[in-house]
Structure to design on (381 residues):
């Protein structure tokens, strides 16, 4: 039976908006973990079949197939192609899925899955701003508006709807956010991320965590929406970052003398209400666990993207997962969310945490625009 193995995973530190990575061109930002991945695995880069890279805002310096330009910017062989994909926030997790599927199909042996987003340089919304300026019918089309009505469709509204549906108070969400910062600060202080990060531009650690954050400070912030429950403190941070993961077949592992670190157990997708937008990790997780013949209790580490606090909080309630195993080193509220780069960043974190703790199974999931979600389950080897 064909298997797909993770051989390497490396990421940049995640930089704050206008922080230490903000002056790095997006192609160079993406090139950095690509080059580090090849160096750390010892692989002949000419043997790579394809580079699949997630990026959400594919405009300006992130346009023009950044997977290809990043690979070339890294000084790697011209013979290797690259393709850039967009599944919104799950873009580089989907890149991992496509890479694994190429290996599992037998049509490819070595595929690099990666992701990047330089949100300081290319702000969120850059690729859809024209559509938003012209109104909902322009952005979504007549069929969409006939089906869902000309109502607001946004992540911010979706997060508020989730907070209301699952009866999550502002205070509960702020306590969750504070815990994210505390876990991230502890992980950095203990060096848990050192082996997975390739320092860049003088930045060696993630810039987002605020160890001095308090509930009192969070309580003083204005809500993102009038009469809303969410604030900047309970939302993911705007960030710059990139990551890369190498997927290999069993034959490639043998031929190139590689050391597999994990195997792909399950690749699952699901859709849910696009108005709520952010709820799909719940049905996707149920679907993935059923397909894999596993339970949530079998998972030793879970990485679920903290796009907004209600996303992991509602997921924890519905899936009845262990909070201690979920984002054990903090999530995007503290560590940041570089959109198209986050999926590969989370996989890098998941793999290294399984290795650090000796865990067996890990699960990764994240909400995505349009009411979608990816779930990836891996087994540490």
């Amino acid at each position: 039976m064909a298997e797909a193995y993770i051989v390497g995973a490396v990421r940049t530190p995640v930089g704050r908006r206008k922080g230490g990575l903000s002056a790095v061109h997006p192609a160079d930002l993406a090139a950095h973990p690509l080059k580090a991945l090849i160096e750390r695995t010892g692989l002949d880069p000419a043997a790579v079949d394809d580079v699949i890279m997630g990026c959400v805002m594919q405009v300006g310096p992130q346009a023009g197939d950044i997977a290809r330009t990043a690979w070339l910017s890294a000084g790697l062989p011209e013979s290797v192609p690259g393709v850039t994909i967009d599944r919104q926030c799950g873009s580089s997790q989907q890149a991992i899925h496509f890479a694994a599927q190429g290996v599992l199909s037998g049509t490819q042996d070595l595929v690099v899955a990666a992701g990047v987003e330089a949100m300081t340089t290319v702000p969120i919304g850059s690729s859809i701003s024209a559509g938003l300026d012209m109104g909902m019918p322009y952005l979504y089309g007549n069929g969409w508006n006939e089906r869902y009505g000309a109502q607001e469709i946004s992540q911010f509204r979706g997060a508020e709807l989730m907070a209301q549906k699952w009866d999550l108070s502002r205070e509960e969400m702020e306590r969750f956010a504070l815990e994210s910062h505390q876990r991230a600060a502890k992980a950095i202080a203990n060096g848990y991320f050192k082996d997975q990060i390739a320092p860049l531009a003088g930045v060696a650690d993630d810039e987002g965590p605020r160890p001095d954050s308090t509930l009192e400070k969070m309580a003083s912030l204005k809500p993102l929406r009038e009469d809303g429950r969410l604030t900047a403190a309970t939302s993911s941070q705007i960030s710059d970052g990139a990551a890369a993961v190498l997927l290999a077949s069993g034959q490639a592992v043998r031929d190139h003398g590689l050391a597999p670190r994990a195997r792909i157990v399950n690749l699952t997708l699901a859709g849910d209400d696009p108005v709520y937008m952010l709820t799909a990790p719940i049905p996707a997780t149920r679907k993935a666990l059923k397909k894999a013949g596993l339970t949530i209790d079998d998972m030793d580490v879970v990485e679920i993207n903290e796009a907004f606090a209600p996303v992991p909080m509602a997921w924890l309630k519905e899936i009845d997962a262990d909070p201690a195993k979920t984002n054990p080193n903090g999530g995007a509220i503290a560590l940041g969310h570089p959109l198209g780069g986050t999926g590969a960043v989370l996989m890098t974190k998941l793999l290294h945490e399984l290795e650090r703790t000796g865990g067996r199974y890990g699960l990764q999931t994240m909400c995505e625009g349009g009411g979608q979600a990816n779930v990836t389950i891996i087994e540490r080897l």
The radius of gyration is 20 Å. The longest strand covers residues 239-249.
